[in-house]
Write a structure and sequence with these properties.
This protein is an alpha+beta fold. The protein has 6 helices and 3 strands, in the order ααβααββαα. The termini are far apart. This is Lipoprotein LPP20-like domain-containing protein.
């Protein structure tokens, strides 16, 4: 009986801790993004970033400008944006392949899927910084960079992916179109 009481008490404590955690994590409203009056629209708005880059695939990276070393901050922010692009495109490719496997019966091994993702990531060298902006209102100042992948690099990535997957031209086009639709969102 003592064990039953302890189990019941333990459950109430667990529920109480969970409830307290959820209340602490929740807020009344989502905090709006603050912006500097000089801030370009692309800093906090992906649609504006894609428009400013004139590209389907774009990302924004940021880095603190330490000791006035703009080259180091630019490299760090650019690397961050490239990683975002790689993750977006890789995730799109993976999801499109899985969707095609379900709808079209496409059979792709896990090794082929990983190789395809690596081919996509290899095209990151074809990304370029389009714009950069320094937020002078922060301390230390923050550098933002807008990085994009041009259409030709994207098409090459999809071509390489299709070759690795050993799929025919129709399926390759479907894969590319599906990934492109995902990236537009």
């Amino acid at each position: 009986m003592k064990t039953d009481v302890l189990k019941t008490a333990g459950k109430f404590v667990s529920v109480g801790v969970l409830a307290a955690f959820l209340v602490a994590c929740g807020g009344d409203k989502a905090q709006p993004l603050t912006s500097n009056k000089d801030e370009p629209a692309w800093v906090n708005n992906m649609k504006a970033a894609k428009e400013a880059a004139n590209s389907l695939i774009a990302a924004v990276g940021q880095a603190k400008l330490l000791d006035g070393n703009i080259n180091y901050a630019t490299n760090q922010a650019t690397m961050q944006a490239r990683i975002q692009i790689a993750q977006s495109v890789s995730a799109g490719v993976e999801q499109a392949i899985k969707d095609m496997a379900q709808s079209d019966g496409l059979k792709i091994s896990e090794n082929s899927l990983q190789a395809a993702k690596q081919k996509v990531e290899a095209t990151l060298q074809k990304t370029e910084m389009v714009q950069r902006w320094v937020d002078k209102s922060t301390n230390p100042q923050t550098l933002y960079v807008l990085v994009s992948m041009d259409k030709e690099a994207y098409e090459n990535a999809m071509k390489n992916t299709s070759q690795v997957l050993n799929i025919d031209a129709d399926k390759a086009k479907k894969l590319s179109d599906t990934v492109e639709e995902m990236l537009k969102k």
